[in-house]
Automatic annotation (TrEMBL):
Membrane topology: Peripheral membrane protein
Name the record gives this protein: Conserved oligomeric Golgi complex subunit 1
Chief subcellular location: Golgi
Cleaved signal peptide residues: none
Species in which this protein is naturally found: Meloidogyne enterolobii (Root-knot nematode worm)
Composition-biased stretches (Low complexity): 798-809
Protein family membership: Belongs to the COG1 family.
GO cellular component: Golgi membrane; Golgi transport complex
């Protein structure tokens, strides 16, 4: 224990001894240093100044090296620019004070300062490039003012107009890059323009964002946070040097120089920028507009553009100018017009035309695929009793009505899109779209009513096929008319196509006509023109259908050849002989007066009327259509009767019948040619006999026209409805059993569809009754055939009546059994 303590005492004494030696050596060195400095001070009077200069230069160099990492850091550009300005000031001071740091044997100080100068210069270039590149991507006015303040620190001689030009040029580069990108859109371009306008307005306009930032930056003692932190981390003497440098940088940006520029200067600069952007984007805008395939796309785009500009948009204090005049409320309109010009409007006009053509093609393509014929007049509804379909009177089917309704809805949608575009579009002449739509719709109606667009052959009426009155030429014309000529003969397919076109045009006239009127932009002249086009085309289509019907039935009836054969001899006339009226002139003398037209004419008229009834068209005839049909039938009959005149035998019965036909047809289808033919036939007869027959023939002709008005009135332009009452008729006329030609298999009354079915039992006993009547009449005819021609005519008429339906059988057909469910 004693030994251990002794060792501890020895160690402690050795440590004290060593400390004493060190203190002695330090005091000696300090004394030597004091003597050396005292010697220098006594020998050089500027020593104190030099010492301070060296110390300051060292501090400047130390601060410069401290700022270099901050300049190259990832801090914001304003902090880096502020640090660069301080570093450049320190570097300039070191350049002027470098002789204090020079040593005759050391040349590293000038080299070091040169390297620092190059590095700072390179940092300045890099910072300016970064600011110019970064400012083009910024559209927030706070970020832009920060970058512009950094630019102003680096280039304090720049004024506001130069800074505005810098920003606009940077934005121009970004917009150009956006335009050249394959996935760029017009909406993206519009957003860039809008963001630029807003940023410039807030930064350089009435927002005064840049002036506020400069006032804040030029305030004495202001520095970025990182610079302030650096000041706090330095020793007192060094921090004071840094604070002085901060004040120098603050004073570098003269606040008075950055005053609010005149509005015209900013207007001019920005207008030039807008014009340049629009000129660069013109081809791109045109290409993008061509991508619109439907009207809806163009409208949606225009609405989106308007929404972009009108959302958070500065509608007041605008500084965009047009033609040197400021416009505070139409900034959006001016930019819209400069950017799009008339490109979007022209494309919209093209889309309107393409949309109407598409609607027209749909009508052309869907019409052959639907049933255009109206449904039955009566239809069952479940287990309830039959009810009348009110759409039957319209003359169109349900499918056709749906097609026209779809067409009208799409046309109405197109009109709404035009109205919407007119409200959001900013072109100067955007209001002309209503007139453009009206013109395009009118052109569409013209194409629909132009039958050459339907690729269908026009059927020439008989009045155009035969223009001469020469009998021989007329004969040749009729021969060609009955021949297999492609220009004359009509097929059922052609007839049905004309009927479908008529029903389509009729549907356009009857259903939703107000939509077409609305598309005419309240222009009365266009509305009247459109109405005339549709009505005239509808009538023309129906006339073409009637031409087909008349031509087809005339060719199928072989009327011309049969009638010429009948009138050429008495033997041929016997085939169409009909019961006449026996008019007694005295107790011993009586004359025979026809009461009905020749059966071949009657059959042809009946078949034509039956065709109309089957297609439910008679009630749809207008005055023009009826006049056309009456004219064609009348002219056809004049041609036939003219040939009968040239070929008929000089037999009184034949001539009287032909005269009656002429007079009856003149009452039904007024044509002076009938009277001329009648006079020529009368020349073949005895004048005295003809004088006696004049009054009865005219009377019976009028009566025939009157009594057949119910059947053939739809073919007549002015049907005769009343001449004489039944009480005023002659007894000889009233005694006739029937007043229609004795023709077999001719329907006197067109059967109503779905209601012409008879019960098998009824048909069976009626057939047996008719057979018994035929047998009895045949026996009676054989007994009376040798008496006289007049008796023979009566028997023949009775025989023919037995093969056809009488009034009693007609009454049996029209019975309550039709309407049983």
């Amino acid at each position: 224990m004693v030994g251990r303590r002794y060792r501890d005492v020895l160690d402690a004494s050795n440590a004290v001894k060593r400390l004493t030696e060190i203190a002695s050596e330090l005091s000696i060195l300090l004394n030597d240093t004091k003597r050396s400095f005292s010697a220098q001070q006594n020998s050089d009077p500027t020593y104190e100044y030099t010492k301070r200069a060296v110390v300051n230069a060292g501090r400047h160099l130390l601060l410069l090296h401290t700022l270099l990492p901050l300049i190259a850091s990832t801090s914001d550009l304003l902090t880096r620019s502020f640090a660069l300005c301080i570093a450049e000031n320190l570097q300039r001071q070191l350049q002027t004070e470098q002789h204090h740091l020079l040593d005759k044997k050391d040349e590293n100080v000038p080299l070091l300062l040169s390297l620092l100068s190059e590095r700072l210069f390179q940092s300045r270039i890099e910072l300016l490039d970064e600011i110019g590149e970064a400012i083009g991507f910024e559209v927030d006015w706070r970020s832009v003012t920060t970058l512009l303040a950094a630019q102003a620190l680096l280039k304090p001689r720049m004024d506001v107009s130069e800074l505005l030009k810098l920003y606009l040029e940077s934005r121009m580069k970004i917009v150009s890059q956006v335009l050249h990108q394959p996935d760029s859109t017009l909406l993206g371009l519009v957003r860039h323009i809008k963001d630029t306008i807003q940023c410039v307005e807030q930064t350089f306009g009435r927002g005064q964002g840049f002036l506020s930032a400069i006032q804040f930056v030029t305030k004495n003692g202001w520095a970025p946070e990182e610079i302030k932190q650096l000041v706090e981390d330095q020793p007192l003497s060094t921090s004071r040097i840094l604070e002085k440098e901060i004040v120098l940088v603050n004073g570098g940006c003269v606040e008075n120089k950055f005053k609010l520029q005149e509005k015209s200067v900013i207007q001019r600069a920005f207008s030039e920028w807008i014009n340049e952007v629009c000129s660069i984007a013109r081809d791109r805008v045109k290409a993008m507009c061509n991508h619109f395939e439907r009207v809806e796309q163009a409208v949606d785009f225009t609405v989106a553009v308007g929404h972009i500009f009108k959302t958070d948009w500065l509608t007041t204090n605008s500084f965009i100018e047009e033609d040197g005049h400021e416009n505070n409320s139409n900034t959006y309109s001016l930019i819209y017009r400069q950017l799009f010009g008339t490109t979007l409007l022209e494309r919209f006009n093209q889309l309107i035309n393409e949309g109407l053509i598409l609607l027209e093609k749909k009508l052309h393509s869907k019409l052959p695929l639907i049933n255009c014929k109206p449904q039955m007049p009566f239809q069952r509804s479940g287990i309830a009793a039959v009810k009348f379909d009110p759409q039957l009177a319209s003359g169109i089917s349900t499918e056709l009505q749906e097609l026209v309704s779809e067409f009208s809805e799409q046309l109405l949608l197109l009109q709404k899109n035009v109205y919407k575009y007119t409200n959001v579009g900013q072109e100067e002449n955007v209001g002309e779209l209503y007139n453009v739509l009206a013109e395009k719709v009118l052109l569409m109606v013209e194409r629909l009513t132009d039958f050459s667009e339907w690729e269908i052959n026009l059927i020439k009426p008989i009045t155009e096929q035969q223009k001469t009155t020469n009998f021989e030429e007329g004969k040749n014309s009729l021969f060609l008319f009955n021949n297999n000529n492609e220009n004359i003969i009509t097929t059922r397919e052609l007839r049905e196509k004309w009927l479908s076109i008529f029903r389509l045009l009729l549907a356009l006239v009857q259903h939703e006509p107000s939509i077409l009127c609305q598309c005419m932009n309240h222009n009365l002249e266009r509305i009247v023109n459109c109405n005339k086009l549709l009505h005239n085309a509808t009538e023309e289509a129906l006339c073409q259908f009637m031409n087909c019907v008349i031509n087809e039935h005339f060719r199928a009836s072989n009327l011309y050849s049969q009638l010429l054969e009948n009138v050429s001899s008495w033997y041929g006339w016997m085939d169409i002989l009909q019961e006449p009226e026996h008019v007694k002139l005295s107790e011993t003398v009586e004359i025979l007066v026809p009461t009905q037209i020749s059966s071949h004419f009657y059959i042809l008229l009946t078949e034509i009327c039956s065709e109309l009834n089957q297609n439910s068209l008679g009630h749809l005839f207008t005055k023009n259509v009826t006049l056309h049909v009456s004219k064609q039938i009348g002219h056809l009959f004049t041609l036939i009767l003219q040939q009968c005149l040239n070929n008929c035998a000089s037999i009184p019965a034949i001539c009287v019948q032909l005269i009656f036909d002429c007079k009856a047809f003149f009452q039904m289808f007024p044509d002076k040619q009938f009277l001329e033919i009648s006079k020529q036939i009368e020349a073949k007869m005895d004048p005295i006999e003809m004088n006696i027959l004049q009054e009865p023939l005219l009377r019976n002709a009028k009566l025939f026209a009157q009594r057949t008005a119910m059947m053939f009135g739809q073919l007549q332009s002015e049907p005769i409805t009343a001449f004489n009452k039944e009480s005023q008729l002659e007894e000889s006329y009233s005694s006739l059993v029937d007043l229609i030609p004795r023709v077999q298999d001719v329907q006197r009354l067109a059967q109503i569809p779905r209601l012409s079915k008879f019960r098998d039992s009824t048909n069976q006993w009626k057939g047996e009754e008719n057979e018994n009547k035929n047998l009895s009449i045949t026996k009676q005819q054989k007994r009376q055939s040798s008496k006289s021609p007049q008796r023979f005519e009566g028997a023949k008429g009775q025989q023919q009546s037995s093969s056809t339906s009488s009034f009693s059988s007609l009454y049996d057909k029209i019975s309550t059994s039709w309407f049983k469910t």
